Every structure is written in structure tokens, then in C-alpha cells.
Amino acid sequence: MASTIVPAIRVQREDFDVAAEIAALTKGRADIGAVVTFSGLCRDEQGALTALELEHYPGMAEAEIGRIAAEAIERWPLQGLTVIHRHGKIAPGENIVLVVAASAHRQAAFEAADFLMDYLKSRAPFWKKEHRADGSEGGWVEAKEADDKAADRWKTPGR
Amino acid sequence: MSTKLIYFAWVRERIGKPEEDVELPAGIETVADLLRWLKSRGEEYENALQYPDVIRVAINQEHVGHREKIAGAREIALFPPMTGG
């Protein structure tokens, strides 16, 4: 295998610029043929929510995303990878998470981005709490069994 | 040796503090032992750990199962299933 790429991983309160992140990954490169980006945004659930508060485990959040990214790099021939996850209070319409996967061909980029999102959802230490528009006490968002099932799709024998 | 326990999300809210240092009594060998012992420490712990099976645990910032040994752990975190992404 050729030289291993180093993923860019950031856990931050601030917003990110999707176009700028793609440009940073592809600038000066002539070997990248495919870039897949996934952005996850905050929804208002038909007006019921005014914000989501994202709590995270500082240190482990970066470490766990790093472990997931390393697995993606091992499994797909990626030429660049950026993962950004925000924390703190996020309003509907704002960005929460970004994955940018670059490869020579689209299949690896699509699959790696899909894998990363499934694993981020079930393994990255973040928790969402709702802020409700009617002023009532918002609850913690419950983990979905469907998300665990989605992550299970990627399991390979022996892992 | 004292061990640092860290709590997140509703586990933190129900226990009523984000972290604490504890001296683990003899005989607490696995994550499951730890959860059982913590649960007996008072109403707030009982509340948080009522269904131990749903509690996720990380030792030194890595996910572990409930049968994992905790010898040598500096930092043990307890939290609900994650909902990031």
C-alpha cells in the first residue's frame, strides 16, 4: 500500500464552511477523482425545537473519531479525509457534522463516507439534548436501533 | 489508588455531578461489578443506573464491554447510548 494519509479531525464549537473544507482537501492535487461530502444539519422537527445542545466527551471524541477514520483509511483507498463534529448549542438549519472523503474513484469515497457516518452515530461520544419551542424541558434524544443496525452492516468477520 | 469517574448526558444529570474520584472497594473487578456497586451508593445512582444494560462505558477513553476488567483504569466514563452525527 502507498503512503498512508493523515485524516483531518476537528471537534469544535464553531461552524465550518463545506466548500472551504473540500478546497483544502483537493488544493494542488491532480490525483483525486472523487470527493464525497456528507453534512448533517440540525432540524426543527416541524417547529417543535429551537436548538439542539450537543454534549461531548473531550479527548475521547477526538480519539474515537480518529479510530473510526483510521479504520476507513485501512478499508478504502482514500486520498484525503476530513471529519468535523460540532458541540454546544446548535440552531435548526445549522451544521452539526461534516465528512469529506476523497479518492481516485467514486465508490471508495461514497462507501467510506457512509461507513464514517454510521460509526460516528453509534460510537462517537456525543449526546443531543432538545431545546423545545414551547419552553418545556427538552429531553435527551434517544439512540435509534436503526443506527446500530446501520453500523452493523460494515462488520467484517474477525473484527 | 483512586479512580476518576466521569458521567455524561442523563447519567450526569441523574447522578447530579459531572465527575468524582472514588476509592474502589476490594472485589470490584469488572465494569459490571462497578455498576452494581455504584448503584448501591444512593438514590441518585439507583436512578441513573436502574437499567445497567443500557449504560455504555469507556475506560481511559476507549469503549469497553461490561465484562471488561477495570484494573489499572485511570478514568472510567459512564454514559447513555450515543446520539451524535
From TrEMBL, chain B:
<dbReference type="InterPro" id="IPR012675">
    <property type="entry name" value="Beta-grasp_dom_sf"/>
</dbReference>
<protein>
    <submittedName>
        <fullName>Molybdopterin converting factor subunit 1</fullName>
    </submittedName>
</protein>
<dbReference type="InterPro" id="IPR003749">
    <property type="entry name" value="ThiS/MoaD-like"/>
</dbReference>
<dbReference type="InterPro" id="IPR016155">
    <property type="entry name" value="Mopterin_synth/thiamin_S_b"/>
</dbReference>
<dbReference type="Pfam" id="PF02597">
    <property type="entry name" value="ThiS"/>
</dbReference>
